[in-house]
Records
---
Amino acid sequence: MRTAFNACLTGLCLLACGGGGDPGPKPLKHHFDDMHIAAVPLGEKQPIIQTQNDYSVAKMEHAKANSDWNESDTKLVVAKNEREQAILAERSASSEKSAADDSSDMTRVNATAVEARRAEMARKAADEKVSWLKAHRAYLKKWVRYTEENMYAKEASYELAKARVAKAKNIKPKGFDFGDYEKQYKDRSERAQRARSVASKEKSHADEKQKKWKSMQAGVKGPPTGDGDGDGGGTP
């Protein structure tokens, strides 16, 4: 059951990460069968219980990361549609302004100039939102990878805890080597730490993109400027 579950989660990550290239982590090689320590008193198994809980939480975090990744695709599609609408609105406002300029009606000229500027700012903000959501998806891709690595690291910790109890009780099933569990945990923990570092850097980039979009969006909601510098109306 464990192998099938791990394979399923790995498959989900491959879908989220786009497949190809880096295939991601493989399921653990070393698992300690609970039956060998079944007779050990529950009070002496607290480290096992704790690491098992940590592993369960890590699995839920990985499932949540995959869910967020899938949802982010829908948000990006919506943002792209909103950008197309903003482009059309900008074109319409520009046409209205051109017609007003030809009319020599200054009241109309001034009003359409304001609307054209606002439409331009809205289109630029829509562009920036798409840019942010693309960066956010790039971050989520790395976050999915981290949560998968972390899931296996927590599982390795759980397996090590069982192996440690067995060693303390001088229980040694056939082929058992405590060093295998120590090495497995060390390797998986280091992989998880590296993946988290990569995801953290990607998040910083996405956060900057989001900050820029929010600034431009605030400019759209406020009174448009007439400076014509193309900066989206400045930051509030």
---
Amino acid sequence: MTGHLRRMAAPMVLALFALMGFNLADTWFVAQLGAPQLAAMSFTFPVVLTLTAVGIGLMAGTSAVLARHIGAGDERQVKRLAWDALALSDALGLMLAVLGLATIEPLFRILGASPDILVLIERYMRIWYLNLPIILPSMAAVGAIRATGDSAGQSAILVSASLANLILDPLLIFGLAGFPYLGIEGAATASLVARILALAPGYYVFQIRHGLGDAGMPRAHELRHSATALAAVAIPAAGTNAIIPLATGVVTALIAKEGGTAVAGFGAGTRIEGMSLILFYALSAVIGPIVGQNLGAGRARRSHSAVISSVRFCLLAGAVITASLWVLAAPLAGLFSAEPAVIAIGVSYLRIMPLGFGPEGCVMVVNAAFNAAARPLLATAISLARVFVLQIPLALVGWWLGGISGIFFGLLAGNILAALLAMAMWSKTMKPDPAQMED
């Protein structure tokens, strides 16, 4: 990995550790309430991650479009697009919150939640959906800040939200220090309050440090132009990121056939997986601005070199993570539950799936690079193939042959094959012609 990538990725690791720690803290504290509560949280993961993917799409779209204008030196358009991205994402957040609140029961019945678990899910999600009008514009703002290359600034925003959530979680879930006992609802309430509190540092970095909100209120034609430019990347990027949680939803439904305990173990494994993938998320976050700015400046060679260096790092880091989780699988799964059946499922997940973490990181990096290069449909094609052509069919075959462990092996095979596909597509479409490479 090049020195520039390291300098940008280091703060992103901290930022993403905070972001993943946000979800991990919620899951761990709720797990202390019991296996049913952990199972309820596990059922929410596909839905929460799918909606978060919309925010990631907005973040990727904002970052990619702004990075190209920054590379071209168009400061006025950078500010116009940054401001419009916030307004559009807030409106979208409101619409999705209303839709989500109206569909809680039928949606989670489709995912296989039993009536007793569904009660817990409803208590959590009716509060969590209120986060969306804050989450989406916040992620768009982070994307704008990321496009400037200010990794430290976006880290400050995410870390402040995570710390606030970490403090509020035990207070509201367990009713400590005079706070009311809210149980699983406390986790959703803590998330909401933490994100509101993080608006202050977000405003400072976005407006005071970078002046990205100086464009003023948009005219109708400017807003339409911004929406078109952002949507060209954001919609495919959101679709790309939403595809993976959809696969998680299918897997959750399969595992739910084995009962709530199996879902709880699966949920514990996926939370640990999220923390294990932080390095890869960080690389995929910083590769976008690097690729976008260099392509905007006509330096295709540097963009390609950054992608190849990142892919190599993913494979090396993946091997180290795999070895570590093989040793630590049992104690890590035991942090979420004392029930042997829950721990067994978590251990199985953590000793099979990490073999595909490095390849999964390669897919993340290549998809982010395609988004930044204004080729988002290629990223979407890779993700569609990964999930619907590879992972889900192979998971179904694995379930038929080997039960829950077979599902995990199917998902693993899908990750490896998807990485090979991603690298082949990148080399075919984006590798610079050696005869035209710049110095």
